[in-house]
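Q: Sequence in, structure out?
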Amino acid sequence: MMRKIVLSLIASLGLCSLALAQNKQVSGTVTDADGMAAIGASVVVDGTTVGTTTNTEGKFTITAPANATLVVTYLGYETQKVPVAGRTALQITLQEDTTDIEDVVVLGYGSGRKVGTVIGSVDQVKGDKLENRPSNNVA
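A: Exactly. Output:
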């Protein structure tokens, strides 16, 4: 009899923890103030590394806890935090960032701000240096 009670208690505790930690499939659309799709906007579950990007129609799908907050970022627009609050469909409208984005450089692995006049190395090679360079001719 005692064994049945203990097993029932363990099973009910396990079910309660599963119910609390349920993740939901959340879909949505990210647009700008004019209703244009935000193509390639980043959508991340706040405090995690779980994320996705929007497609060519501004749509996304992500798995997140029902009480999570989504962080939406897009170059030239203000970052927006959107609580999921148990919803499965979201419509997110981004507002333009009024700061000057001329100084933002998009890199293959992220984005950065110009500190001086140039990011990275720059060199100049004159044509005569290329002409006088030895080359191998296999023919």
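DSSP finds two helices and nine strands in the chain.
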